[in-house]
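re the bet — no i am not wrong, look at it urself. input seq straight from the record:
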Amino acid sequence: MEVFCIAAFELPDSFLLISGKRLFIILSGDFSLKTVKGDRGLNRRKITIGICDDEEFFAKKIKFSCENCLEKISDNFQFVMMHSGDEVMNYRGDVLDLLFLDIELGGVDGITVMQNILHSDYVWRIVFISTHEELVWDTFSVKTMGFVRKPIDEKEIEKYIRCALSELKKDVFIPFKKFEEDTYVRLSDLYFIEGHASYIEVHARGKRFVVTGKIGDWEEKLCDMPVIRVHKSFMVNLEHIRLKGAMIIISELNEEIPIGRKYKSDVQEKYTQFVLESMRNRN
């Protein structure tokens, strides 16, 4: 079994959790999360790159550029080559850490593919490939990292590979104690937390459960993550939201959450900062 240490906890009373092909260090009770620095962990885990382009020439060019980059980072990587949108939407293999997706595919186009796999656990991040720069505005999503113009620039390919792997290392697991057992939620899977008098309700991809404790305590525990308080009863993951007046829309659920009056300016500031920082890191 291959393992990849994606997160480390520097407090005592920690223990190891092996989940799938990844190794995590989980801390029971109060915790703080820190990502492991450097690329050494990437050598322990197979990096999977997906390429979907219906033109063989460009598919091979992207693969060649990826190989040149990945050889500097790891000797353990693989490619999944696809030539249609249907192949991507029906894919059920190893998780694609990064998918290079052509927009002008025959049949189902790349934008439609993206819309259909937003809730998929099989694709981590997407970089679109196209000759049409005007389509860049249609490619925005929580999974989208960027846009590469044809003809392919190898430096652009390398930039997005390194960016995707950097983000992957920050995607920690959060432990929630549930009826004497710990339930683990990946940060990128967490949508929002709803607080009640003596318990919280966790809303995440594929699961929804109740944990004892107050929302204020969880606000402190998650203060180093992009999960912020927006209302006396709600915390949201900035990765999954958009602002609409005095409301927050959880994009993947199309669910509305109110912004409390006392939180309004702070929410706007933190959301803007998060978006700008994400764009800066991806460019």
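see?? The first strand starts at residue 7 and ends at 8. told u. also The chain has three domains: 7-37, 46-169, 173-281. so pay up
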